[in-house]
Amino acid sequence: MRMFHLLMPKEERFVDNFVAHSNFIVAAADALATLMIPNHSNHIASIREVCEIESAADNIARQTQTALHRSFITPFDRSDIFLLSNALDDAIDHIEDVALHAELYNVKIFDTYMRLITEQIQQSARFVAKTMPLLNNITNNAEHIRTMCEEVSKIEKIADELLRKALSDLIKQKPNIITFFGRKEVYELLETTTDSLDDVADIVEGLVLDHV
Hints:
mainly alpha, Methane Monooxygenase Hydroxylase, Chain G, domain 1, disordered N terminus
């Protein structure tokens, strides 16, 4: 019997990878919030930190994709694992995009709207991170998972409204063209990040529907 178990293909630890990936999203969101602190003295260091966290998350994404190709047993449908891994990767990519575009457009003063949307990203990322370990037992954790996914969706709607207000105020201010497009790009990428985290929540809700 022991020999039989040794010969059986091992199940890859996909949920552990999702947990690690989501924790990197939290770390990147926190680093982005640090970048936006008024009178922050070292923008370059904060941007570099965001990029380093994103790179570490990329390693997790690659491990997940490799495991998916070689695994005989998966905890849920392969296509869902692929979609969830990609959605997590998209979220942290967008956080990095915010930092890089701020650098590109020389945005060093981050206004209230930018900080508020970043706070929404931090909250959403934490809900996602708390949800990932629950995927080890979807059936027993279904209600808790649904509740946290609903919170992520609420946050995405708050970010939508903040984006509309930010763009309206920006137009009223009539800044020069470079400033206008730089700030507009940062606003939109921030809101896109909340969209990506909502995409993660939607995929997780789909897993619940499939397993309950």
